[in-house]
């Protein structure tokens, strides 16, 4: 995703710039609160429930790109606008 999708060593194009743009485009704008829904533990002996994926203190909309959450607006988490993150 760095270097406009080019390898830093060979400069070969690995990802097209438009693919990177699409990765960071919110794919579910109709679901701004999707990560505020608690996730129960699937197997209590192996995992814990997850009450929230995104800070409850933030009322800002959430986004989902291709494979990661997107911070649409800068938040108190320290993540900048239009950054991707995952757990």
Quick overview of this protein structure:
By secondary structure, the chain is largely without helices or strands.
Question: In words, what does this structure look like?
Answer:
This protein is low in regular secondary structure. It is built from one helix and three strands; from the N terminus they run αβββ. A three-stranded antiparallel sheet has the order 1-2-3, with no helix packed on it. A hairpin with a 4-residue loop joins strand 1 and strand 2. The longest helix has 7 residues. The model has no long low-confidence stretch (mean pLDDT 84).
Write the layout of secondary structure elements.
Layout: H1 17-23, E1 62-64, E2 69-71, E3 83-85
Antiparallel strand pairs: 1-2, 2-3
Number of strands: 3
Radius of gyration: 16 Å
- Cα shape: globular
Order of helices and strands: HEEE
- Kindly estimate the percentage of residues that lie in beta strands according to DSSP: 5-15%
The rounded distance between the terminal residues' Cα atoms is 18 Å
Uncertain parts: none
Largest sheet: 3 strands, antiparallel
Considering DSSP H and I runs of 4 or more, what fraction of the residues is helical? under 10%
On the 0 to 100 scale, the average pLDDT is 84
């Amino acid at each position: 995703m760095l270097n406009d999708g080019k390898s830093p060593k060979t400069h070969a194009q690995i990802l097209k710039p438009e693919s990177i743009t699409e990765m960071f485009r919110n794919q579910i704008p109709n679901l701004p609160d999707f990560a505020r829904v608690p996730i129960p533990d699937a197997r209590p002996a192996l995992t814990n429930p997850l009450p929230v994926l995104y800070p409850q203190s933030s009322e800002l909309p959430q986004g989902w790109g291709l494979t990661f959450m997107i911070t649409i607006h800068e938040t108190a988490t320290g993540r900048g606008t239009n950054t991707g993150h995952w757990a």
